[in-house]
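Hello,

I think I submitted the pyridoxal-5'-phosphate job twice by accident. Can you confirm which output corresponds to this input? Input:
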Amino acid sequence: MTATASNPTGLDLQQAAKDHLWMHFTRMGAYRDAPVPIIERGEGSYLYDSAGKRYLDALAGLFAVQVGYGYGEEIGAAAHAQMRELPYYTNWSYAHPRSIELATKIAGLAPEGMNRVFFTSGGSESVESAWKLARQFHTANGERRWKAIGRDVAYHGSSLGALSITGVAGIRSPFEPLVPQVSHVRNTNRFRRPAGETEEQFTQFLLDDLEQRIWSEDPSTVAMVIMEPVQNSGGAFTPPAGYFEGVRALCDEHGILLVADEVITGFGRIGDWFASNRFDIKPDIITSAKGLSSAYASIGAVIASDKVAAPFLEGTAMYTHGVTFGGHPVQAAIALKNIEIMEREQLPQKVRATEDQFRATLAQLLDLPIVGDLRGTGYFYALELVKDSETNATFSDEEAEKLLRGFLSERLYDAGIICRADDRGDPVVQISPPLVAEQQQFDEIVTILGEVLGEASRLVGH
Ligand SMILES: Cc1ncc(COP(=O)(O)O)c(C=O)c1O
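Support: Only one job matched these inputs. Its output is below.
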């Protein structure tokens, strides 16, 4: 192999990937006889593979690259300056300027009264940290509470604690028994609810389910309820009116902490710095990662309310938890620069201003017989695929496997778009582009998806 700028050693990347790289959540056998997709560079909302082919990244990496791929120079310069000044130091008993500045910045963007920031290396670690914090908070208040309540089909991460909270059977079962005593309540999927049900009735139905679960667990043992403001897995489930107000009231009634998992929704994705602001959720703890640095660094943050932080700020009390890379100065410098860019480009405001336009563009796809529903808000949508949009009948597991893995994933990639055909709940296509995407990209998404989903429609007999 000849050396190039992105492959200076001239390594045979394709062969080396097959020989040495262990890809995440990947059926590696699929690449035994097929090439591994190798993404070499990015610009704006686009990625380029090692053959120079361009892809529209309609997933922002993994729901994360808010500013797109074009800020390497500017963010790199901030990382470089930090590397020169202080490449690493810890937040275990010490502070350093960048983690202090970043914590202050985040506290300023977070909902009122959420002023204390604990840094992690990513989303799973943020969720782990929140659960431990919730447990220790109750202990500090003289109670012993340890249980968590999550929601069906929600993904909260892959480490054992976060996986235990995750409500996706297929990725839990290989690792059972998991951390015990987590239960799951209904999510806010409204597709296929009875036709005459009002929004108010739906909200009440969900809150009744949560209340029953709290009682059946024994409320005095429940440490936290954890929910994404808009649930990704299953396909961009938005909360019905009054839902989070009701969840908050139930948590207050039973002394349970409410955790908003904003690993995806945080940092602009739904048109506000935090979805908790947009939906007035008033959480006790927010978990975040991804968009905090636009995924230019592996940094996450747990943001605690003054109430949650208070017991740990007195006397000899301590949150008995930490990770080597928490608040890493270079990662913090990258996150600070990312937020500065997002503020300068007014990305959350831009998302809010263009979300209707985006949704209206995507709604054209509802004309296809295979598209049953369009859900979501901000720059965060899902199309649910159905056998027939007249009946909204869904696919069997076997049919979904054939359609999603056997056809769609590969065909979408071949057609030059990256979005996710996901079957963790009913089959959906998830769309979550960089926040710098504009009408031109919305149109391109619809053109390519329209073509490929049209083929899929014919494949399933339309
Ligand atoms: C809502 C939510 N929580 C937690 C996580 C885990 O984050 P990470 O992959 O950074 O560990 C994810 C990842 O997609 C997520 O979507």
